UniProtKB/TrEMBL annotation:
Coiled coil: none annotated. It comes from Torulaspora globosa. Residues 84-95, 232-241 have a biased composition (Acidic residues). This is RWD domain-containing protein. Residues 9-154 form the RWD domain. Pfam families: RWD (PF05773). Residues 78-98, 224-252 are annotated as: Disordered.
């Protein structure tokens, strides 16, 4: 095989396909080297949600026996963001309760970065060369196209995960907010527990017991108790206070 001729021919074809994206680093054989910038355009429902431009910079180095040997491919993910976007995102917003506002306008797509995907992408390209039997034929264009497709597919998958997580966070936040207005549910057991504690704190049971003892031992006649109001006023006040608190609890 005329390796020099194969490489020169493929390079000319690539230059015609990518006139602005391709830059030749070394045209001399052996050691042909060039760089291609692949701009990603993932298909999103809301195209305005993505403000960051993602570009995969691919650097190809062709071995002397290419295409019978696979090219050496270097991959670098590059992000480009408008300056004003950084200023807007630096301003956090909080609601009336002091909670940070969780907004979808934080732009979920802009939270996705390709740096972590690059190692996996390199492995996928190596597997494609073996599985598709690309050795022996000009393969650079095929690999460039695969990079674009794989990256855009991965981006959409990651966005779906972020959207689901975002929805779960909103639901959790909503449940927490509802708890603030729902209050504590009063059950018979919790009411009896509160009532016992309430009467103990005010000493109601002790005073009632004391009055019963005094009445039964003749230390105070019923008339005296009545005249002093011990049999009515205090108990009515205590019962009134207890009833008022009970009503408030039931309304919660």
């Amino acid at each position: 095989m005329d390796y020099r001729g194969e490489q020169e021919q493929e390079l000319e074809v690539l230059e015609s396909i990518y006139p602005d994206e391709l830059k030749v680093l070394n045209r001399n054989y052996p050691g042909v080297k060039f760089k291609v910038e692949v701009r990603l355009e993932p298909q999103l429902e809301d195209a305005n949600g993505l403000t960051t431009e993602h570009t995969m910079c691919l650097e190809f180095e062709l071995p002397e026996r290419y295409p019978d040997e696979a090219p050496v491919i270097g991959i670098k993910a590059v992000e480009t963001r408008p300056d004003e976007q950084d200023e807007e995102e630096s301003e956090e917003e909080f609601d009336d309760h002091g909670n940070k506002v969780v907004r979808k306008l934080q732009s979920l797509p802009d939270q996705i970065h390709f740096d972590g995907f690059v190692p996996e992408l390199s492995v996928l390209l190596e597997e494609q060369i073996d599985n598709d039997l690309l050795l022996g034929m000009q393969m650079c264009f095929t690999l460039i196209s695969s990079v674009k497709e794989l990256c855009e597919t991965w981006f959409v998958e990651q966005l779906g995960k972020l959207e689901r997580q975002h929805e779960l966070e909103l639901q959790a936040r909503e449940r927490e907010e509802q708890k603030k207005f729902r209050g504590t549910k009063v059950t018979r057991e919790s009411f009896l527990e509160w009532r016992a504690k309430f009467r103990k704190e005010l000493g109601i049971d002790q005073r009632d017991e004391k009055r019963r003892l005094e009445a039964h031992h003749g230390r105070m006649t019923g008339r005296t108790i009545f005249e002093r109001g011990l049999a009515g006023d205090d108990e009515e006040n205590e019962e009134s206070l207890e009833s008022a608190v009970t009503d408030k609890l039931r309304k919660l």
